[in-house]
């Protein structure tokens, strides 16, 4: 089976079905339709596999932070016991939104789903497990939910002072959204961008 991309052991992606069952279920299509990490990269979603047991001394993480200017770092634990207003927060995280800056999440324990839209506005579910780090580009519509294990501890990185403001869809007028469409959705082979307000 060729050489497996080590990232695929901690980050997997697939197209989602249209079911409105529990958001924490995998929501695979039938038959299952997996999405490569290269295809995610075409959408601007970057990914790494890192040593989550050694994040304090991980040279690769240090290098990524230096190269990308991630000066801010903190941790967020999402589970019913640790997150105040858990039910409300989970609902908010799952509301489709964008940010005007990158969203960087490094899973150091547990797992969760980051859903992103493809060129045709279809949902791709990105399952990030311990050791997986992803960067969602500014302007991409996305949402987050836990999986059925109900736990993730994620390192949050940011350039400068963190701004976590979500802009719920539609917010196509924002410069970050326009730049995202220009840089990723209108590229060769990318098809036409979808107008969310339509």
Automatic annotation (TrEMBL):
Topology of the protein relative to the lipid bilayer: Peripheral membrane protein
Lineage: Eukaryota, Viridiplantae, Streptophyta, Embryophyta, Tracheophyta
CDD domains named in the record: cupin_ARD
Membership in a protein family: Belongs to the acireductone dioxygenase (ARD) family.
Main location: membrane
The protein's enzyme class: oxidoreductase
Keyword Cytoplasm recorded: yes
GO molecular function per UniProt: acireductone dioxygenase (Ni2+-requiring) activity; acireductone dioxygenase [iron(II)-requiring] activity; iron ion binding; nickel cation binding
Protein name according to UniProt: Acireductone dioxygenase
SUPFAM superfamilies: RmlC-like cupins (SSF51182)
Domain of life according to the entry: Eukaryota
Any GO BP annotation: L-methionine salvage from methylthioadenosine
Catalytic activity: 1,2-dihydroxy-5-(methylsulfanyl)pent-1-en-3-one + O2 = 3-(methylsulfanyl)propanoate + CO + formate + 2 H(+); 1,2-dihydroxy-5-(methylsulfanyl)pent-1-en-3-one + O2 = 4-methylsulfanyl-2-oxobutanoate + formate + 2 H(+)
Record's cofactor remark: Binds either 1 Fe or Ni cation per monomer. Iron-binding promotes an acireductone dioxygenase reaction producing 2-keto-4-methylthiobutyrate, while nickel-binding promotes an acireductone dioxygenase reaction producing 3-(methylsulfanyl)propanoate.
Keywords noted in UniProt: Amino-acid biosynthesis, Cytoplasm, Dioxygenase, Iron, Metal-binding, Methionine biosynthesis, Nickel, Nucleus, Oxidoreductase
Record-linked InterPro entries: ARD, ARD_euk, RmlC-like_jellyroll, RmlC_Cupin_sf
Entries under Pfam families matching the protein: ARD
